[in-house]
Amino acid sequence: GDFHAGLNFAAVMEAPVVFICRNNGWAISTHISEQFRSDGIVVKGRAYGIRSIRVDGNDALAVYSAVRSAREMAVKEQRPVLIEAMTYRVGHHSTSDDSTKYRAADEIQYWKMSRNPVNIFRKWVEDNGWWSEEDESKIRSNARKQILQAIQAAEKWDKQPLTELFSDVYDVKPKNLEEQELGLKELVEKQPQDYPPGFRI
């Protein structure tokens, strides 16, 4: 409902908004063919009088071009634009979802390898001579060193007391946070073995 209300409101008010719908083919375990009979999402924008663009969501350059054009239209014409980026959800919907129960493993593998947007973009960059395996190896090695150095430096810092969790948002701490802080203190006192040395509350 929010989607339709949002599109209609933006169209009527001529709001310079760019809506981006990532159409990955699934809503948890429900395939798009079981969700609607129209030709994707792009037609829904047109039905509300909104300029709508469909783009290959796995092509970084195409997405960049579509978003850039949509933004230009929204700003110059002071009206909304809808982009439908056609893609695929390779991973599970969530940690409690096993997508292999409702789609074939080879289908997932195809999208993961053959239609991977990072691989597609990388191949284009390599074909233009702007990147190579050697460049990749160097940057990965340097990034790994920098990350390890940052971790080692961070581990030497004193840990902040846990009370910081409860004092960094509100000027006057609400009652529910006071209760949570007290509950945490009691838990730490009861089970100090579950917390690292030097742990402060």
Characterization of the model:
This protein has 201 residues and is mainly alpha-helical. Helix content is 50%, strand content 11%. It has eight helices and five strands. A three-stranded parallel β-sheet has the order 1-5-4. Strands 2-3 form a two-stranded antiparallel ribbon. Strand 4, helix 3 and strand 5 form a beta-alpha-beta unit. The protein is extended and about 60 Å long.
Short characterization:
The chain has eight helices and five strands, in the order αβββαβαβααααα. The protein is mainly α. The strands form two sheets. It has a three-stranded parallel β-sheet with strand order 1-5-4. A two-stranded antiparallel ribbon has the order 2-3.
